Every structure is written in C-alpha cells, then in structure tokens.
Amino acid sequence: MQKTIFKIAKMDCPSEEQMIRMELADLTNIKSLDFDIPNRRLTVFHTENHSKIFQRIENMKFDASVIETVKIENYSAKSHNTSLQQKLLWKVLFINFFFFVLELTTGIISKSMGLVADSLDMLADSIVYGLALIAVGKTTLRKKNIAKIAGYFQFTLAAMGLVEVIRRFAGFDEVPAFQTMIIISILALIGNGLSLYLLQKSKSREAHMQASMIFTSNDVIVNLGVILAGVLVYITNSKYPDLIIGTIVFFIVARGAFKILKLSKPTTND
C-alpha cells in the first residue's frame, strides 16, 4: 500500500473537492481519499503507482503537484458512512440553492449585477453538489452525460450574464441599491461559511471553525468582492463598481462551467 500527498493549489472550495472525487471515482487502485481544503492538500491511499491519479488531477488544471509518496504497512481503511455523507451534501446543496434564489431575486430587484453574478456562483456550487449526489450508483458514462448537461447550462447562464453587463455598461441604467448588495452578500458569506463548517466538521472530531478554513474559499472572496462593490457604489454613486465585480464573477462562473465540462470528457485508461 502507498500513501501519496498531492498539493492542489487551485482547490479552494468544497465543490472542487466533489469534482475531484467524481474524476477519480472509477480508479480501482484508490482505497481512500483525505481532503485538506485549508492547506490545499489531498492524501490518497492506493496500490500501484500514483501516475494515473496524478494525471487525472492534472487534467483538471488545478495546478497539482506531488509532495511525497511513501509505502505504508498495516493500512486500515476508514469506515465511510455513505448515508451521512449524502445528508451533508443535501444540506450544503440546500444552503447554496437557497442563496442562489435569494441573491438572484434581490439582485434583479436592486438592479445589481454583482448579486446576480454571485447568485450564479452559488448555483454553480449547487450543480456540483447535485452532480455528486446524482452520480452515486450511476455508470461512468451516465455521470459524464449529466456533467455535460450541467456544464453547458452553467456556461449559458454565465454568457447571458456577461451580455447583460455589456448592455448596462453601454446604457443609462440606475445605480444599484448598495444597501441590498451589502446585506445580502453578508448573508451569503455566512451561508458559505456554514457550508464549509458542515463539510469540514464531518472530517474531524473538532467542531470549531478555523479562520484559514473560511478565507481560503474562492466563494468567500467573491462575497467580499460584492460587499466592496456595494461600498464603492455608495461612495461614488456610480453603477460601475457593481458592473465590474459582476463581470469578474461571471468569468469565474464560466471557468467553473469549463471545469464541469472536463468531467464529461472520456477518460483515457493508461
């Protein structure tokens, strides 16, 4: 038995953990996976060489590298409670989808593209958690087909959002309601923190939330960006800070769609 520790620089969110799990799911030489999101590390217990595992992760463009590989004796597999894991995924799926609806609704009402874009970022995470739940018990081909549909759907929404941002840049739209932007983004920040807490708590007996656990998340950075845009809208009385953060987040959502689409590509067996 071997233990390989990977450094995955761009794994900064629990939804990316689920994407990696789905990508590695059909490798029979893997015995268990242990994710450490705050430190961006993945420990894999496996047989044979780690090359297949590394190739799969590298293909996802998460900037992966191998820290070390060691042989271990007396390996004992950790018992995984599948039912508990599914309950956790349903909880974080509900949290993310709730804030998607909340941010989308308030974003439209307050005329904030930052909130609309952030809502799609929440939807993107919901899609990944949903894929992880749907994929249970499905064949590899079925999983990839589902991922392809989800990826194209997410990319279409991001493209529509970017078109709307361009229209607003060129038009004479009202200044968005900065109060709504700030308040809803703070609530979304709490929602992201809660999702991280639930998922990380399930992996450790320690129930406390580490600061590094929160602020390594790309989602939290997006929330802070919308809050900052709201403050700048208030200071400048201009729509442009909101449109700028909206543009950035729509590109992030589109990038996430490409990651999901990569899951749908046929895997070459080494």
Structure description:
There is one protein chain. With 270 residues, this protein is an alpha+beta fold. The protein folds into two domains: 2-71, Alpha-Beta Plaits, CATH 3.30.70.100; 82-263, no CATH class. It contains nine helices and four strands. The chain has helices at residues 14-24, 51-59, 82-110, 113-134, 140-170, 178-201, 211-215, 218-236, 240-263, and strands at 2-8, 30-36, 41-46, 64-71. It is elongated and about 65 Å long. The relative contact order is 0.16. Residues 205-215 have low confidence and may be disordered.
Uncertain spans, ≥5 residues at pLDDT below 50?
205-215
Please bin the fraction of helical residues. 55-70%
Q: Order of strands across the biggest sheet?
A: 2-3-1-4
Coarse structural class: alpha+beta
Number of domains: 2
- Fraction in beta strands: 5-15%
Count up the helices. 9
What kind of sheet is the major sheet?
A: 4 strands, antiparallel
The shape is elongated
Name the helix and strand elements from N-terminus to C-terminus, one letter apiece.
Answer: EHEEHEHHHHHHH
Number of E strands: 4
Distance between the termini: 20 Å
Mean pLDDT: 83
Radius of gyration: 20 Å
